[in-house]
């Protein structure tokens, strides 16, 4: 196989093999995308890389759509794809964190949107996660509620005993020291609105 320019392909290049078998000439072409996750993408590889780069840099979906000239549906699809890759990566790469001498920060949050665009009432899914201060390894899991019982079970599953756990002042964390953890609290940042 040789790497050759292909003007009829959106990426401009492809793999080509020319052989003679039993005196007959054969020519086989393959896309550079074959066997990769680019294979079914409708964007060019350049557009895909730009989209992913800008997405990881926090550029808004609408800005990326305008820069690349994408349809709204394509922009939404790629945004969701990037989110799914992150979700799968975090799920598959999650491991037990901490241990003696280690610090793990934990928090719970509700992911969703404000109800009726007013106040702080949010409709959505509760999640709980932690991040190791040194290794930056993390875990995040969906939870039904944030009761002490629920959170403690997850802390025992994801964080080794002897770890210094840093959290907000949520009452669900009040008994961590009784379960073999050190515990420090930080007050959450409060926004003052006028």
From TrEMBL:
Name by which UniProt lists this protein: ISXO2-like transposase domain-containing protein
InterPro entries: IS1016-like_transposase (IPR053164), Tnp_ISXO2-like (IPR024445)
Domain ISXO2-like transposase: residue ranges: 96-194
Record Pfam families: DDE_Tnp_IS1595
Taxonomic source organism: Exaiptasia diaphana (Tropical sea anemone)
